Amino acid sequence: MTTLESLPEDVIDIEVFGQLLEMDEEDEREFSQSLVWNYFEQAESTFASMDTALAEKNLQELSTLGHFLKGSSAAVGVIKVRDSCEAMQHYGKQFDADADSPIDEETALSKLTQRLSSVKEEYREAEKVLRTFFGA
């Protein structure tokens, strides 16, 4: 059985995830598992919406969706997805937080395309870790 301490700290925020587990009844993981499974569904749905918004070049919608998934990811402790979604939120507002400067629409769309691809990979990594943790 996977333990909290054995989770990769670059993928899962151990403190946040540990707090989530504290809400469970004794050794049963029903509550935390249901929250994580809901997160999986929410992430998949949000990625589909992001794909559509990107195809439509809808920067505002991409920013909104990035903000939404950032919050959900933070709540369950999925670090890389949280951070990538924060970057997407800024790119959607035509701002590069790393460079601390505004960017044009074409640059924003390019960065969003790259980030959406990488955030999906980061999500798959976290999903695998969490499914293993819950024995699924």
TrEMBL record:
One of the record's GO cellular component terms: cytoplasm
Instruction: Write down the InterPro entries for this protein, in alphabetical order.
Output: AHP1-5/YPD1 (IPR045871), HPT_dom_sf (IPR036641), Sig_transdc_His_kin_Hpt_dom (IPR008207)
| Highest taxon of source | Eukaryota
| The protein's name in its UniProt record | Phosphorelay intermediate protein
Read off the lineage from the record: Eukaryota, Fungi, Dikarya, Basidiomycota, Ustilaginomycotina
Please name the GO terms of the biological process aspect recorded for this protein, alphabetically. phosphorelay signal transduction system
Query: Which organism encodes this protein?
Result: Malassezia cuniculi
Q: State the Gene Ontology terms under molecular function.
A: histidine phosphotransfer kinase activity; protein histidine kinase binding
Modified residues annotated as Phosphohistidine in this record? 67
- PROSITE patterns per UniProt: HPT
**PANTHER family reported for this sequence:** PHOSPHORELAY INTERMEDIATE PROTEIN YPD1
What keywords are assigned to this protein?
Answer: Phosphoprotein
CDD domains for the chain: HPT
**Where would I find the HPt domain in this sequence?**
28-133
